[in-house]
Amino acid sequence: MSEPLFFETIKIKDGEVCNVEWHQRRYEHTLEQFGENKAYSLKEAIQPPKQSGIFRCKLIYSPKKIEDIAYTSYQKRSISSLKLIKADIDYSFKYLDRSSLDALFEKRGECDDILIVKAGLITDSSIANVAFFDGKKWLTPRKALLSGTSRARHLAQGRLRQRDITPTMLENFSKIALLNAMIDFDIITIKEIQKDKILC
User: Fold this and answer.
1) pLDDT in tens, 53-85
2) What residues contact residue 110 under an 8 Å CB cut-off, 6+ apart?
3) Would you tell me which CATH number, out of the four given (2.60.40.290, 3.40.50.300, 3.40.980.10, 3.20.10.10), belongs to the domain 81-199?
4) Integer CA distances (angstroms), 191 to 113, 138, 198, in order
5) Which pLDDT score, from 0 to 100, does residue 19 have?
């Protein structure tokens, strides 16, 4: 049986690797969960392009070794609508195989992305953790599908609080933030909440 493959998406801005220590933590945690204690230094492994602009570093690894590192120029995707999709899905590790998430993304209809509801609770979008603003504080789902590096960093800094969030609670929020390594904490104003979608 082949070993599972995982990946880290790491932001490079103007030749500098961003927040690599948080990716190192998740990488090492993943190795430990799969019985491996020998970790490489991601900072030493990454050789970022020495040019201005934003690049996406995709680092693929197995429990035993770093398999591949690739760099591509990054263009942010515009998201102004999210469709709520109910699914019993497990993506607790950042597996290279995203077929289950991709299948859910295909159900987005006319929306730009999806918001996954598992066991009655909001979790993540297809590409990011999420947070909601209630007018005073930012709340992030307690049971996110994946422990993202940006989410973990903002929790540690006290910017976020964890809470169970149901679809019926969405009408209490005025803003939504998408969080991942490339967009960090991308705040979007909510224009309308419909039964099965959020319009931003």
Assistant:
1) 999 999 999 999 999 999 999 999 999 999 999
2) 81
3) 3.20.10.10
4) 16, 17, 8
5) 98
Residue 188, C-beta contacts closer than 8 angstroms, at least 6 positions apart = 79, 80, 175, 176, 177, 178, 200
Do the beta carbons of residue 44 and residue 80 sit within 8 Å?
A: no
What kind and span of H or E run contains 150? Answer: helix 149-156
Mean pLDDT of 182-200: 95
| CATH 3.20.10.10 in the chain, residue ranges | 81-199
Q: Which H helix or E strand runs over 176? A: strand 175-180
H or E stretch at 17: strand 16-17
Rounded to two decimals, what is the model's pTM?
0.95
Gap between the Cα atoms of 100 and 90, Å rounded: 9
Number of other CB atoms surrounding residue 193 within 10 Å: 16
CB 20 within 8 A of CB 46: yes
Secondary-structure percent of the chain, ordered helix, strand, coil, rounded to 5: 20, 35, 45
Q: What is the dihedral angle through the alpha carbons of 89, 95, 99, 102, rounded to the nearest 10 degrees?
A: 80
Question: Across-strand partners of 141?
Answer: 163
Q: Is the dihedral of CA 174, 144, 31, 96 positive or negative?
A: negative
Place of tokens 């590409």: 127
